[in-house]
Amino acid sequence: MSALNILHVDKTFGNTQVLKDISLAIESGEFLILVGPSGCGKSTLMNAIAGLEPVTSGDIQIGGEDVTWRTPAERDIAMVFQSYALYPSMNVRQNIAFGLEMRKMPKAQREEAVARVADLLQITPLLDRKPSQLSGGQRQRVAMGRALAREPQIYLFDEPLSNLDAKLRVEMRTEIKKLHQRLGTTIVYVTHDQIEAMTLADRIAVMRDGEILQLGTPDEVYNDPVDMFVAGFMGSPSMNFIPVTLVSRDDGYVLRVLDEQDPTGAPLELPWPPAREAQALHEWVGERLILGVRPEHFVEDETRMETSFDGTRLDVMATVVEPTGADILLQATLSGTEVTMRLGPKSQVAAGERVALRVDMSRAVLFETTNQRRVA
Amino acid sequence: MSQTDSPLPRSRAKAARHSLSGSLERMLPRLVIAPSLAVALFFVYGYMLWTFVLSLTDSGMLPQYDFIGFAQYARLFANERWNVAATNLVVFGGLFIILCLFLGLMLAILLDQRIRQEGALRTIYLYPMALSLIVTGVVWRWILNPGLGVESLVRSWGFEDFTFDWLVNPDMAIYALVMAAVWQASGFVMALFLAGLRSIDDNLFKAAALDGASLPKVYWRIVIPCLRPVVFSAVMILAHIAIKSFDLVMALTGGGPGYATDLPATFMYTYTFTRGEIGLGSASAIMMLCGVLAILVPYLYSELRGNKHG
């Protein structure tokens, strides 16, 4: 039985439709992440699940029961807010116990729950402090503790890490993941950070303009995106989009890279792997398409790291070299298109030099130019 | 200012002029402040001191300087009328502050519920504060006058036994004062509370809703405790309004009936300027100053300490 079921939910504010026929189901114990740029409706969807904003039409079921018109308190959910929303006048203990107190839990049980949660999150020494005396990370823990104390059916996290500094964010991310693995809780988590989405989620729902574009595992969303938006949104640095023309040859399909600056020169041609010759490709011969290649699917030719890696060779001019420590990000011009590549840290590339590369075409994807949908 | 790429001589001349105008610039604030500081020192603090000196003399119609120690203060506390005035201040000040806080908070909470025409309503509630207390007093005197106002209106409707004579009833007249003063000031308190409410994170309400708290509970347990600094400021402001109340009493009751609604301020005025007892009046003025200081000093202390920490 699914823990949360959202059926054809619509939401309009005045004339703007912020949620368009959203349907999704979450299994018990699943970690679902709603990800998308700001204004995509992900927070509205979360508020609709929480009952903080009424939906215009559609149904929301929690644990098999229709809760569409129930108040937030009657839904058996807990929420962690971006601003933490700790009650400023209460100490940590009272903050955690407040929800239990409102649910008329006896005092002894309440104290037991607070002790359990404080132990779990290692905030026992902070119990008598006021929120104003806590650091960002500690407030974050208390906010999670407040949610955990109630043991609800579903946890909602609304961009919980975006107010933390970079280092703490990574730590808390791991902590949330550990907590989820240990407690097996059902979590719906909103973020605009695609790395958080990739690292935490069992499944990711990528949203844009009030619609779910793709719902799948992190691997599916990353390697098998349904359209250019999903492909470009997931992954950092983002996927390279190269305009090409599909050409049919005797030995298979070839992608001819268009060079706007130099139309007379010999065009670069990338053979499409024969193993991936989809039926659909046939009807696109002679058409303009967009080739999507992830930065890590380029490999410097000299390294010959993997003998099995039989990519297509190409020759580019390096424009910017950005070493990040773990690897080197290389900006280069490939037949007039700016392309980002992720090379190994030992690479000796310098800006202004020509670099010999191979590209792994077996992982590349093709999109239509008009509606940006995936072709192959 | 001088890092322009203009030719050297010009910039040197500029620098010379700069130093002259610079010293003027440094002096200017002090020069501008000095006259008003002198005036304030003389007319506020000088006269305070003079009043204190007079309170130690047996001045009558005119000031004179036969010092008699604190005898005027002893006479003051033995004076029945002063005791009425002081008791009135406690009743009036207490009720005024409590009612203003309560009404102001209620209005602010109700206005904060994202209602339509909030701006217009806020202005309406704040308007009494724009009136002078004299006007408030006169308006309420007419409203409460048994022969002209509410009582005569209700009687003209046929309720011949209706009485609403607070203004002329010595036991109730002080409450008539409270009513007018609350009407005047509660809109202002509302504005203070509204500003406080607006600064509260919306997510607190959402979190409390998820925790299962009803709206009155949210306000009582979470929001109002957050407004403590606002309550504190409001009490300070209202308390000194209450202690200094003079014009409202003069316009509404004139201290009457008899001296039933005398407040320290009207007591001081009456003794100093109409009864020819400047010594006693000065003593009462100094007592009022002590009352204001008793409230103001802790307030300033906490404010300044707060600033240092903030």
How would you describe the oligomerization state of the chains in this entry?
heterodimer
Residue share in helix of chain A: 10-25%
CATH topology of the largest domain in chain B: MetI-like fold
With helices defined by DSSP (H or I, 4 residues minimum), what is the helix count of chain A?
8
Q: Mind telling me the CATH superfamily name of the largest domain in chain B? A: MetI-like
Number of domains of chain B: 2
Mean of the pLDDT scores of chain B? 83
User: What gross morphology of chain A would you assign?
Assistant: elongated
Under the CATH scheme, which architecture of the largest domain in chain A would be assigned? 3-Layer(aba) Sandwich
Major β-sheet profile of chain A: 6 strands, mixed
- Poorly predicted tracts of residues of chain A: none
Return the CATH architecture of the largest domain in chain B.
Orthogonal Bundle
What do you see in this structure?
The complex is a heterodimer of chains A (376) and B (310). Chain A has 376 residues and is an alpha+beta fold. Chain A has 2 domains: 2-233, P-loop containing nucleotide triphosphate hydrolases (Rossmann fold, 3-Layer(aba) Sandwich); 240-368, OB fold (Dihydrolipoamide Acetyltransferase, E2P) (Beta Barrel). Chain A has 8 helices and 20 strands. In chain A, the strands form 4 sheets. A 6-stranded mixed beta sheet of chain A has the order 6-7-8-3-9-10, with helices on both faces. Chain A is elongated. Chain A starts with a strand and ends in an 8-residue tail after the last strand. The model of chain A has no long low-confidence stretch (mean pLDDT 86). With 310 residues, chain B is mostly helical. Chain B has 2 domains: 1-55; 74-309, MetI-like (MetI-like fold, Orthogonal Bundle). Chain B has helices spanning 8-55, 71-78, 80-111, 118-130, 133-144, 150-156, 173-198, 202-210, 215-226, 228-244, 247-252, 264-274, 278-309. The longest helix of chain B has 48 residues, at 8-55. The interface between A and B is medium-sized, with 22 and 17 residues.
